[in-house]
Amino acid sequence: MSAPSVEFFARQFERQIAAADYELNPFETWTLPHLTGRVLDLGCGLGNLALAAASAGHEVDAIDACAQAVADLARRAQELALPVHTRQQDIAHWHAEGQWDSLAAIGLLMFFTCDDARRILGEIRSAVRPGGVVAVNVLVEGTTCMQMFDPLEHCLFPPLELRATFSDWTVLLERTDDFPAPDGKVKRFATVIARRPLA
Ligand SMILES: C[S@@+](CC[C@H](N)C(=O)[O-])C[C@H]1O[C@@H](n2cnc3c(N)ncnc32)[C@H](O)[C@@H]1O
Predict the structure, then answer these.
(1) What percent of the chain lies above the pLDDT cut of 90?
(2) Which phi-psi region, left, alpha or beta, contains residue 145 (left: φ > 0; alpha: ψ -120 to 50)?
(3) Of 106, 123, 118, which Cα lies nearest the Cα of 190?
(4) Is the dihedral of CA 126, 109, 88, 71 positive or negative?
(5) What residues line ligand 1, using a CB cutoff of 6 Å?
(6) Is 44 helix (H, G, I), strand (E, B) or coil?
(7) How buried is 57 (Cβ within 10 angstroms: 0-12 exposed, 13-18 middle, 19+ buried)?
(8) Chain-wide mean pLDDT for the chain?
(9) C-alpha count within 13 angstroms, C-beta hemisphere, residue 73
(10) 3-state helix, strand, coil in the chain (%, to 5)
């Protein structure tokens, strides 16, 4: 897997691994208390959420295309004897092979074409068990910091699209946040945490 966005994160993750910089980001912090049962961390990166969830008693599956991140997560999970099952995979072609009680996709879907991002979002919906929880976070329109993107393969959803995708679920958290980026640019994130109806 050598997409420019994955290479961008591989360089960032190598620096973080060297510095043992394993902080949860704000979106992971908001997601953690909502997780129930078996968890899938899709686009797990360094897997800080996966490890925190496993520490809290969840069995966790964690998928990412970045070999360095997945290897480092597997190492940390083994050292801590935590139930985190890692897989290196290009999510562009991901199809849910089962269902999870909780699924987190934090900072992932903007790294695909909009067609692929919407297809994966549909897979995410069907991969959550009735009564289960989804946490999705994406960069949206209004973002001006583009340095991590493949020019041809990225997608900025309209700000309300994520909320609309889960309009038939119970929304537990919904917010839009601007974060400053270098050179006066901005990253605008939409976050939705929602529970799938039982019926
Ligand atoms: C912004 S990071 C988010 C990581 C983690 N979820 C977090 O919140 O820290 C984006 C992640 O998406 C992964 N990614 C990008 N494109 C991917 C692809 N095609 N398949 C799988 N993972 C991909 C990157 O390797 C990176 O780990």
Answers:
(1) 92
(2) beta
(3) 106
(4) negative
(5) 3, 5-6, 9, 25, 28, 43-45, 64-66, 69, 90-92, 106-108, 111
(6) coil
(7) exposed
(8) 96
(9) 31
(10) 35, 30, 35
